[in-house]
Amino acid sequence: QVQLVESGGGLVQAGGSLRLSCAASGLTVSRYRMGWFRQAPGKEREFVASINWSGGVTTYGDPAKGRFAISRMNAQNLVYLQMDRLKPDDTAVYYCAAKNLPTGGPGYDYWGQGTQVTVSS
Questions:
Q1: 22 within 8 A of 97, measured Cβ to Cβ
Q2: Which residues, other chains included, contact 108 with Cβ-Cβ below 8 Å and sequence gap of 6+?
Q3: Quick one: which of 62, 55, 61, 68 has its CA closest to 101?
Q4: What is the pLDDT along the chain (121 residues), one digit of tens a residue?
Q5: Residue 1: partners with Cβ closer than 8 Å, 6 or more residues away
Q6: Which residue among 8, 24, 34, 86 is least enclosed by CB atoms within 10 Å?
Q7: Which uninterrupted H or E stretch holds 72?
Q8: How far apart are CA 98 and CA 2, in angstroms?
């Protein structure tokens, strides 16, 4: 029922940009915080950015600060991650996730399948 589908990943040269999209369905998005995480091979999953669907309050992890921007388009249940000045260290699978705000749990409740971002040097 709940589905998060990422798109927009690909191969980009260092210094370039990508915009990732996450389409959310099957949930009341206004009740969730939407997040982007990433995981590189052999590394732990890392928080990138989040946004409260209602209100638009954003939070950024260290890798994203100053380079990435999360946003959402409420009418289409879309959340974006604009990534600028990409570095090879940004290479990872990027995951969209949804955290249910009313329950207040520490983790995220739903996850997408991920989209690969590869940044070449």
A1: no
A2: 35, 37, 97, 98, 99
A3: 55
A4: 899 999 999 999 999 999 999 999 998 878 889 999 999 999 999 999 999 988 889 999 998 999 999 999 878 899 999 999 999 999 999 999 999 887 777 799 999 999 999 999 9
A5: 26
A6: 8
A7: strand 68-73
A8: 10
